[in-house]
Amino acid sequence: MPRIHHATREIQFKVVYYGPGLGGKTTNLEQIHKRSNPAHRGKLVSLNTESERTLFFDLLPIDLGQFRGYTVRLHLCTVPGQIALDQTRRLVLRNVDGIVFVVDSQRERLDDNIASIRNLEANLLLQGDDPSRMPLVVQYNKRDLPSSMPVSSLQEALAVPAGVPEFQACAVKSDGVFETFKAIVKSCMSLVGDPREKPEGRMASMLPAPLHSSMFPVAAMGAAGSDVVRDYADRMGIEVPKAPRVPSFETV
Ligand SMILES: Nc1nc2c(ncn2[C@@H]2O[C@H](COP(=O)(O)OP(=O)(O)O)[C@@H](O)[C@H]2O)c(=O)[nH]1
Ligand SMILES: [Mg+2]
What we know:
alpha/beta
């Protein structure tokens, strides 16, 4: 993905909301679902445990309307935050086109945010994606809570590079939710260009240049980083694609 079907004149995208457990990913999707036109949205499918934590993932299909004569269809997904569910996260990340990283702004969750970024980086590398070229938007959620850290401290601690769109949010009140959503759609759409000129099927889901490597230290290591990933994959028994998922990108 993005996937182009010329016969049906459709473009499909997949955006994954990633971040630590209980950070507000599902709440983002609930708000988008609640406030979008029922004619243009599908069902919000959630698989939860009894305690309402996301067990598998949430999925919300949305129809974004027409772009140069093509219908743009989007799948929004969330990953479960629990450490034990890494295999599920890897499944959800398959064929991802863009990431919204939902930061839990509370001071006591800082380490969990960092662990989740490391986990995101490892899982993208494991499927042959370059995290530093993946469309990314960072959302600082839970700004309403008294223990939320200043945004500048979070930016520094998480090494969010300049150029990555960032939004403050209070997802339960829907503040910042649509701004975040629009920014990731814009970033993903920038990859498509003119769909009429693109070949049928899946196209590059990578941005042309490394834009945010400081957040992803292993990706920034280049070849040495690949060794780190391969060692990890060997230990975990994970099969790593030989070449990057999208090795080259001729149209910028
Ligand atoms: N105070 C506050 N609570 C929030 C906010 N966003 C989400 N929550 C709450 O945090 C909890 C976890 O949210 P959820 O969306 O399930 O997190 P997920 O595990 O990332 O999917 C729920 O009780 C939400 O109501 C926010 O901006 N402020
Ligand atoms: Mg959830």
